[in-house]
Known about the structure:
With 91 residues, this protein is mainly α. Helices cover 78% and strands 0% of the residues. The protein has three helices and no strands. The radius of gyration is 22 Å and the shape is flat. The two termini are 43 Å apart.
Amino acid sequence: MKFPEIDLKELKEWKKQNFKNRLEFLDRYAEWVKNKNNTEWSEQQRKMIDRGHRVNLKHLFGALKYFKSNTDKSTDELLKEIDEELDPKDR
């Protein structure tokens, strides 16, 4: 198997630019938070968190569908197994 050639100088420059972009984003976001009232800011946070939960649920349902097709266990049994595998602080 042949590995791709990687230009380490280019990779280093990319990492530096990526880090710079992240810092600029954080500065803009901090400024936005400072200039918004709590109601508007918290509504935006709620939307972002809800969106994340929907994505997680889609992955969970996809996994359940896969496992259901490969086992005789009920959805409740599968969810119970998943819950038992989670760290208690993540439940």
